Give the backbone structure.
Amino acid sequence: MGTARARIRRRQLATIVLVACVITPVFNVLTSAASVHQAVQGLVDAVLIALGVGGYLLFLRDGRLRPWFRRLGFWTDLALSSAIVLALFLVGRAAGQVVTTLQPRRFLLSFTDAHLVFALPFFAVVAVTIQFVLQMNRLVGANVLGYFAAGVYRRPKAEERIFLFLDLEGSTQLAERLGSLAYFQLLRRFVDDLTEPVLETDGEIYQYAGDEVVITWPLAAGVRAANSVACFFAIRAAVEHRAARYEREFGVVPRFRGGLHGGTVTAGELGDLRQQIVFVGDILNTAARLEEYAKRTRLDLVISGALLDRLDLPPGVEAARCGELELRGKELPVAAYALTAGPG
């Protein structure tokens, strides 16, 4: 089945192919002699072009080649990707002509086809739309764009969520020792490495705040298979797996602590100049204070007793009672437990 990221990309590619298969045959019939042949031609073209363009955008540009594209300027990136996408469109369309006619010479003839006058602008609009959606999805979050489009949080609503606050240990000293540029590269590498565990456990990145990362789950998803707990230890395993690379590039392996709590929050769209979906409530404050406690006491992960009671710990994870904690900003003490990954 592969990684969670690969599964998501396959689903996105299937969606692109499906949409193209619906639109392209209709477009062909409307812009040329209406016939069954044109509809079939559009269907074949749609599959070949969508697989080529979608595969490039999802698995190469945003996959294997992403570190390289990251180094390019915005306009250079856009121009290069647009040129590659255009070439893939022309090749896919030419291949479609060969498949439907069984005439290899149609491959070259397709580049002078009068129908390109309609097909090329149409494809340009579709390609730009696809790239825009993919980029917006990356900018605002894997699920957040869908929330905005569906208007899920147009009106503030109460919902139950779990929040995991992660904070790098000794970040101030690291920044001083490495320098701001190298420290940023370390932070970027750490965030990249935690992405797969977040996806595997059905989590969402809520926000980055300096050296702090906040991950969230709807309550049902976070409790299922103890995803919210499993995520923390999966991130730790991912960092440990790449320890040699961290040592080689930065001279240190990042360590982090976490605080975990869940309950009812209010969610809604906030902002005018910059709009985002915001979660508000004491749940976040408590999770942040538990993370502070974990840092102060050098514990791996501290979870509230209220949340621990709602889930079954993953195999190998053990809980030790911390007691009733007097947390900053909280009037009442909070029952808390330290979670550690046991042997095996």
Observations:
- The mean pLDDT is 87.
